[in-house]
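Please discuss these two lines.
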Amino acid sequence: MDNQEQMDYVVDSFAKENAEKGLRVFVAGGSRSGNDEFYVEEAYNLGRQIARMEFKLDFGLSSNGIMGAVARGVLDGWKHNQDKASAIQGITTKEYYNLYQSDEIISQIEDVIVAQTLEERKQKLLNADFVVFAPGGVGTLDELAYDCVAMQDGLLPIKPFILYNVNGFFHHLVEYLKFISAEGFADPIPFIVVDDSAELGIVFRLLKLRYKKTDSTKEAYAQARKLIYELPYFIKKKTDSSIHVEDIIENMQKIENSGSLKEQNELANEVEQAYLEKEIERMYDRLAKTGRDTSIVSDKLTNLKKRKKQAK
């Protein structure tokens, strides 16, 4: 089976699975909206992207904040489909379900699993094919830490983990995760970082077209790393809606399979340059945020010194 036949097989198998039950995306995010309306807007767009790919949403059945916006996006995106009620699976506990069951959004979700404990709820949520972490509070951080530990300890198969880095929300966390890995306290986690819903749409399509389910931790990790490395190239090439991810993949495979050595080297250099440019762009963004943090710390120190002087 050559690369094109293998790609066709993967596309066909995913299409068949979507038609039968749909690939599932677990989204963890805040039950609050945050102070910037952009968070809610992009959360809604996340839901629309899930529906556009005909994925199904698994979430903790919150109708508020970021998670409520994601659910609205999915429901609105599935309006054309008679089976929209099954587009979302809510997984919660009895205590939380009693809080939300009369809500307008919750009332549209027929597929609800009531777990006995929070631990059981977490485990059922992690049965999804992909995981997306959207902006949120300590509950979202708890979910992320739990999932990382579960993967690291072999209790959860490695699967694509996406950080929805709206407004650079996760930049501190990304640096921290890199640091603890570099210091030898954790295994590296192949997080796929996306900065907006447009990039997320590209990632979803790449996962749908190229990601193969596997029981091999090594293979799953390699697939995620490859996607992370090549993603900036796809972002750079997809300049408008007339350019499709499928066409970019086809062109890459054509060069890799039958292109000249010069064409193959040029493609490899383009992919490398796109990756480096994206990393540099993110680094500048982090430096800008670090500068803002430094300014805040400086103001706090000034105020503390004033209070100390006044207290004498």
Summary: Residues 1-19 have pLDDT under 50 and may be disordered. Residues 13 and 212 are 9 Å apart (CA to CA).
